[in-house]
Specification:
heterodimer; A: mainly alpha; MetI-like fold; B: 237 residues
Chain lengths: 283, 237
Amino acid sequence: MSDAAFVATAAIPSAAPPPSPRKHWTGSRIAGTLLMGIWIALGIGFAFLIVGGYDAEKVARYLPRIIGGVWVTVQLVVLSVVFGAILSIPITLGRLSYNWVAAPLAFGFSYFFRGTPLLAQTFLLYYGLGSFPDLWKSLGLWWFMREAFYCAVLAFSLNTAAYQAEILAGAIRSVPRGQWQAAASLGLGRYATLRKVILPQAMITALRPYGNEIVLMIKGSAIAGIVTVFDLMGETRYAYSKTYDFQVYLWAAVLYFLMVEVLRRVWDAFEFRLTRHLRRDAV
Amino acid sequence: MMELLSLLSYGPDGWGDELLSGTVLTIALAVCTLPIGLALGFLIALAKTSEEPTLKTAANIYTTIFRGLPELLTLFLIYYGAQFAISAATNALFGFPVEVNSFAAGMVALAIVFSSYASEAFLSAFRGIPRGQYEGGYALGLPRGATMRLVILPQLIRLSLPSLSNLWLILLKDTALVSVIGLAGILRQTQIAVGVTKHAFFFYLLACLIYLGLAVVSSLGLSRVSTWAERGQGGHG
């Protein structure tokens, strides 16, 4: 074996490696450079627009309002996601049951709220239900239906509840039947099985879709700005209507982008931590 | 009840024709957006699978930005941004500003959003196709273009169809947003009807139901497309 290697090295004298081939300007390289050039030009252009259009008075007047809008957006998203999560539990149970009343009801709810635009739902709740003030006054709920913020939270909660129920139901269905059977043979009740055996496994499947759903909620919450809620989008539209200055939309874009990116990174770290027992390479 | 139904009659005092034209416009917008979005999404997916780092980075920047922005904001950025840029340019060139067509702006914005999600769908479909399929194509002497068209694309369509179907339904719902820039789609016509008749609940519920109807029809159509795409899989003998 070593003899053969010796013969080979003797027969083929060692030499420097061949020079690496010259890089050609292939089609994809030209296209890539061109596109990167466009991105860089756009970035510089926007930077110029913001720096060149800097107006201390405008910034002093509208920036605090827009930052306040970010806070309203955060409140909208957190409240909607939490209420949606609570509301999604009975809907999930309905989606998983074979009861001839609960199952079609849950299906109908989920189909309606996932099949229609969030904007139309928000209009339906705020302008549609809000057009019966006498009814709400007699029920003592007029303070709620009158306020665009509450209506937006209600609309978003119902919408995200439908999506969250589908996520949860799908995750529970993805746990193999054997898990239920094993727990039953150990004498665990249905509720204990669900809580101690099924849900811990289902939640790991559901983590990623839940994260996506929150991102969708942050982006969807921009709709509140149309029904007179002064969230980030509402404040931006207000500032634009006063100044006709396009750069306020660029500010809003940066802020929304930051919110989504921060959430995405935090959620990734969260998921990495929660699934650490599933990785073999991590010691 | 009869009074409400008579509001839907066809003609000058009913809203049936306005709602119908809004529905047609909404469908037209979605249908016009789809091919642009698909083509753009496919090109971006190709760029992402490319070995050229600049091309890959450029494509990744595109999807990161447009998947991170609210669809509504993308619409405003395109609509007002184009207005800002085009009217400045035409003012300098011809001495008068040119208005931006809201249908075109809506189409571009929706196509951008659609394509950034579609590129992810295509990308994961590309990953589901083994290298051997390309090598098989080349071994048969097919050029790159023909391998892509005859070998890879049919499999790509089958693998990406479930995600793309979903994206179509999302696109259909996103068309509601163009009412905000004044395009007379379903929701805009509904708003006008509400403004005149004051029957807000009835008309907004109707708008939701029209959208729901479109979703149901789409689902039926898409399940037929899926049967067609799966025809070589031997599922039903």
